[in-house]
Amino acid sequence: MTQEITKDSLSEIFNTSVNDYKNTLEKKFNIEGFPTTAHENWLYWAPDHLHSVLLNPCRKIHETNDISADICIVNGNLVAVSKKLSNLEIVETYPSGDLQRLNLDTSTSSISTLNSIQSKKIIMITVNGNIEDTVKISNISSCDEKDVTTISKVVIKAKKNTSSNFVVEHKNYLQEENAVNTSFHIIAEKEADLSIYHIFKDHKAASFFHSMIYLYENSKCSHLTFVTNSRIVRHDTEVHFYEEGADLKCSGVGILKDNEQFYNHLKINHYSKNCTAAQFFKNILDDKAIAEFSGLVFVQEGAHGVDSTQSNKTLLLSDNARVLSRPQLKIDADDVLCAHGSTIGQLNPEEIFYITSRGLTPKQAKALLVYGFAEEIIINIKDNTLKTKLDNYIKSSLSKINI
Predict the structure, then answer these.
(1) Can you tell me whether residue 262 is helix, strand or coil?
(2) Which residues contact 347 (CB under 8 A, 6 or more apart)?
(3) 3-state secondary structure of 366
């Protein structure tokens, strides 16, 4: 299990281990280097043109009037916290000692390793009890410089027997010459129930996002990603099932047009038996948009009783759109239920004909079918306010698509 971080222990950890920790990470990054299309997880797009940008972190804390959320983070710095929050502890602290003590993995890609090297602070959010209202987080990237990357690292730790919901809006006010490198570590201790929803909307700069999820005995985690009107989003998710009875629901929807790109990579590591995981992702592509889904389910030897599934469905609204789907299973245990599936297609002419025969125009029929395709992902969201917001986002995004 994870160990508590105290102010006294932080000083000792920081003084004795930071240099070694940073050196280890830098050696790891130098060995792996920047990803290229020769790397298995970067076959279809690699950030060749962003090397110098990713190596140039923005250190400015920009002022913002966008403080409507409960927790406001700007360029990796905690700038505002609502006073109404209860059962929640929020602190800024040193990243290196915390990461080493909490054993937070950085292996999703060399870009996530770079995030740990460059992070000057870590935002530590600890759930100490049940939280009825959804906690809203604004993770803002804002900079008037060119060719820089904003860095942020957040840890959400749900303690034993707690229940909480988080909505994170990743707001990107940067231009195309910049980039964002963000990591979220999610820890669900024994019997914890945690839901977290990430929204990526209206991003001009390339966004690199890393989710690391750690699940312990009988914990539950729901993790959803919504992407729309964003130039390039690369999302790497790595999940670790450390103890029995843990349950994960991982889902997402992407609505892309023009030349937008969304690369979604997941690795689900089942180290313990009798755990369940369900992945369900959908993309709607128009124009020359590109989406990739690459999901690997790994069941370690002895992890019997695991039930792990993955499904990726893509709706193509243009002959020029491109989808890359790679569901994968690696199973080293007996007595497991594992399945994966992928479907790629266009709207069904028979369904369109059926709906138009009931009085709708062909365009209305198509819009209804596309909306229903996306709605299946968000219908199970617990927070009604967020559900309505995403519903409106979907309708707004579809109005801009050539149906």
Answers:
(1) strand
(2) 315, 317, 366, 369, 370
(3) helix
The first and second tokens of residue 1, run together, are: 């299990």
Best CA proximity match to 265, nearest among 307, 340, 326, 207: 326
Q: What percent of the chain stands above pLDDT 90?
A: 76
- Whether residue 232 contacts residue 17, with contact meaning beta carbons closer than 8 Å, is answered with no
Q: Which two tokens stand for residue 170?
A: 């990743």
Rg of the chain over Cα atoms, rounded to whole angstroms, equals 21
With vertex at residue 211, the alpha carbon angle to CA 271 and CA 54, rounded to the nearest 5 degrees, is 130
| Cβ neighbours of 287 (radius 10 Å) | 15
Is 193 in contact with 163 (CB distance < 8 Å)?
yes
Residue 348 corresponds to which tokens in the numbers above? 């069904």
pLDDT tens, residue by residue, 173-222: 999 999 999 999 999 999 999 999 999 999 999 999 999 999 999 999 99
Instruction: For residues 294 and 299, give the distance between their C-alpha atoms in angstroms, rounded to a whole number.
Output: 17
pTM value is 0.92
The helix (run of H) or strand (run of E) holding residue 387 is helix 384-399
Least Cα distance to 189 among 222, 219, 144, 230 occurs for: 219
Whole-angstrom distance, CA of residue 207 vs CA of residue 201:
11
Q: What angle do CA 270, 272, 274 make, to 5 degrees?
A: 95
User: Would you state the structure tokens that stand for residue 232, as one six-digit string?
Assistant: 């390039």
Cα–Cα nearest to 275, from 223, 240, 310: 240
Backbone angles phi, psi at 333, to 5 degrees: -135, 155
Mean pLDDT of 375-396: 91
Check whether 376 has a pLDDT greater than 90: yes
Residue 274 confidence class, pLDDT cut points 50, 70, 90 = very high
Q: Where are the beta strands (DSSP E) in 242-383?
A: 247-256, 261-270, 276-285, 290-299, 307-316, 322-331, 337-345
Using a CB cutoff of 8 Å and minimum separation of 24, what contacts does 31-37 make?
32/110, 32/113, 33/110, 34/110, 35/109, 35/110, 35/111
pLDDT for the residue numbered 106: 59
CA distance 316 to 314: 6
